[in-house]
Amino acid sequence: MEENLADDDVEIELAPIAVQITYVQQLFFFSPDSRDTQEAVASYTDFDKRNLANESSLAVAVNNLIALKGPKDVSDGLRKLDKLIEKSDGPEKFQLARGLDLKLSQKQREAIYTNMVLLLLHSNKMDQARELVGALPGMFPGSLMPVLLQAAVHVAAAAGHPQIAADSLAKIPDIQHKPATIATIVSLKERAGDTDGADAVFDSAIKWWSNAMTEDNKLNTIMQEAAAFKLRHGRKEEAAHLYEQLVKSHGKAYEKELKPLPGLKAIDVDSLEKTSGAKQAEKANPGPPPDPERWLPKRERSSYRPKRKDKRAAQIRGSQGAVAKEAARSSDTKSNQPANPKGASQNAVQSKASSKSRK
């Protein structure tokens, strides 16, 4: 069946798939300066400006866009999330607008509220952050994220003592290895001038995530942040070691980011990889061993047998012409002899008589 839909209607129908593809592109690289991340930001921004997606897909796109930008544009992020989060008079003080509570999963709703709290902290709106954080445990019972956000609010309140705030966060076992907690502790220790302590936090987190048997492993994210931190503070060898590990674990992805060499435009690398390499030498043939007497002349070898002489050849004497003449004479004499035996005897008698008369 064919449906005559307008282009805008087609885009609305395909919006969930387009947002999912952009999200995969967002996760393709961890660096915020990579080409895939920039393309993801452009795609999310286009969704928001054109407003063609359905409400749930648009909410996911806006939240992912805020997560990608981070604290770069706090006011714009707060303005976008204010359209999604509303205060209510019911038992829950906050709810999502346009019935999104029923259209989004719990993890998606939790991500929206989390980004809202973080933006409030970045904008130094402590009262609003405390109010929202206080309502999250009832909205998401059993989730660790409200506990983490409450700790972040307390840390922000104690920002005048960064070392104390960092130590307080590090003592919470449930969240001390989370990427957000690690980033907060490192930032606080840097502000307090404890560079070695911040570096130790990264090393401990890398060791913990290397041994963690979880599906949602954050090792690569923490390694990249640790490498950037070490490079920023002059620890180039340690940073190079971490970058080498990252490249080995994501070699194919980093290879696509490299620019092609100008001299290799006409070369098809894929076809070269499919062709066979150099031919290997054939294995030795386990046949019979070579003759050990192969270096001796043939007459001196034990297997030598001289040729036999032809006896008929020994009877022929003289040159080739003489032999032919003798054969011709013998044939003539045989032809001159009579065939009658009586005539032969008479001739013999006559010859004898004549010989006597001569005597």
From TrEMBL:
Residues 291-303 have a biased composition (Basic and acidic residues). The keyword Nucleotidyltransferase does not apply. It is found in: Cytoplasm; Endoplasmic reticulum. Its main location: cytoplasm. It holds the Pfam family SRP72. Residues 274-359 are annotated as: Disordered. One of its GO terms (cellular component) is signal recognition particle, endoplasmic reticulum targeting. One of its GO terms (biological process) is SRP-dependent cotranslational protein targeting to membrane. The keyword Endoplasmic reticulum applies. This is Signal recognition particle subunit SRP72. It comes from Solanum verrucosum.
